[in-house]
Design goal:
The protein has a domain of 104 residues: Cytochrome Bc1 Complex, Chain D, domain 2, CATH 1.10.760. By secondary structure, the chain is mainly α.
């Protein structure tokens, strides 16, 4: 008798489960906005957002956190003024190995591994007139200024190198100049 009750209960439960499922009507969906959200295009017109714009533009004069603006202009007078600047790197943030690595990546192709102006591109006559560091009166400030803005055929490297990395390259260039 007990086994008959169990069989009837199992059959009744399966009948209830199968009969409640309807393929033409899916089950209820709670919080449908989480699964099927309304997509918006960036900077498109909508009534939902303030001023009809989804994204917000940066205010004038905004700079990223940790960035220190370089106030010396890209002029000949600015270059002369930059010669009086000193490196802000101390013994902890100064990293000669990193400066050497960055110099090898960005500078040695033209200026050479020793700073003598005989890099691979100069040897192959792609660029001519790349100066040797021993022929120039350079300081760490003037090197930073030239790496930031570029000079003559050399372009700016401010997008590739952070300010700290540019100072590290300047320290390494002065080391190369002392060895020439």
């Amino acid at each position: 008798m007990k086994s008959l009750n169990k069989i009837v209960a199992v059959l009744g439960l399966t009948f209830v489960m199968v009969s409640c499922h309807n393929n033409s009507k899916p089950n209820y969906q709670f919080f449908p906005n989480m699964y099927e959200s309304v997509s918006y295009e960036t900077y498109s017109e909508h009534d939902v957002f303030k001023d009809g714009k989804e994204g917000q533009l940066l205010p004038d004069g905004a700079i990223k956190r940790g960035f220190v603006p370089y106030e010396i202009p890209n002029t000949p007078e600015g270059y002369i003024l930059s010669k009086s600047m000193k490196s802000p790197l101390d013994s902890i943030t100064s990293n000669p190995e990193k400066g050497k690595e960055l110099y090898g990546i960005y500078c040695a192709i033209c200026h050479g591994d020793k700073g003598n102006g005989k890099g691979k591109l100069v040897e192959r006559e792609k660029f001519l007139g790349v100066p040797s560091y021993k022929d120039r009166e350079i300081t760490d400030g003037s090197i930073f200024h030239v790496v930031t803005y570029g000079l003559n055929s050399m372009g700016s490297h401010a997008n590739q190198l952070s300010q700290e990395e540019r100072w590290q390259v300047a320290d390494y260039v002065l080391k190369l100049k002392s060895e020439l």
